[in-house]
Design goal:
Layout: H1 17-27, H2 34-43, E1 50-51, H3 52-58, H4 60-64, H5 70-82, E2 86-91, E3 94-99, E4 107-111, E5 117-120, H6 123-135, E6 146-149
Parallel strand pairs: 4-6
Antiparallel strand pairs: 1-3, 2-3, 4-5
The chain binds zinc ion (ZN) (2 copies).
Length: about 160
């Protein structure tokens, strides 16, 4: 996990992730296997940005014990994205995941030197987005924006 990332606070949700994912799987006629449950628990144990390799590293004990397999991890990640519980972002050809379920909408600053992701939320930005959409008769379902550059630490400035 990228430990140095700055994260926003979570928001309350109607159902715990395990129940929400259970509903999704049932709607697809899929079984909530113990493997899927283990992966879900790991993914939702804390909020962070992570890629599949970092998750594998996190799950390596379970993989070594043959309690989960790598293909199952990839498949479950795809299902969590499909269920709208994880957000998948492509960052310089790397797939980065983060919680979408129970987490406020936000955007990111990406440091090109240390790869750190810093989260922020700007109501002003959303207002501009909605104005643009209205003008073009476009229905907004979401947006993603990455501001690229060099973070304060890498610039040798003050820490956040
Ligand atoms: Zn940096
Ligand atoms: Zn984020």
């Amino acid at each position: 996990m990228m430990s140095r990332s700055f994260s926003l606070r979570s928001v309350p949700v109607e159902l715990p992730p395990v129940e929400r994912f259970g509903q999704f799987l049932a709607s697809c006629g899929k079984r909530f296997t113990p493997q899927r449950r283990l992966i879900l628990e790991q993914v939702f144990s804390h909020h962070d940005h992570f890629d599949a390799d970092e998750l594998m590293e996190h799950l390596q004990t379970l993989i070594a014990q043959r309690r989960v397999s790598r293909p199952t991890v990839y498949r479950t990640l795809a299902e969590l994205v499909e269920a709208g519980m994880l957000r998948k972002m492509i960052l310089e050809s790397r797939s980065v995941y983060e919680h979408q379920y129970g987490y406020p909408s936000h955007d990111h600053l990406h440091c090109q030197r240390c790869n750190r992701l810093i989260e922020f939320h700007s109501p002003e930005l959303e207002r501009i987005r909605d104005q643009v959409a209205r003008r073009l008769h476009f229905e907004v379902t979401g947006h993603r924006m990455f501001i690229t550059g060099i973070c304060a630490e890498c610039r040798g400035g003050v820490r956040l």
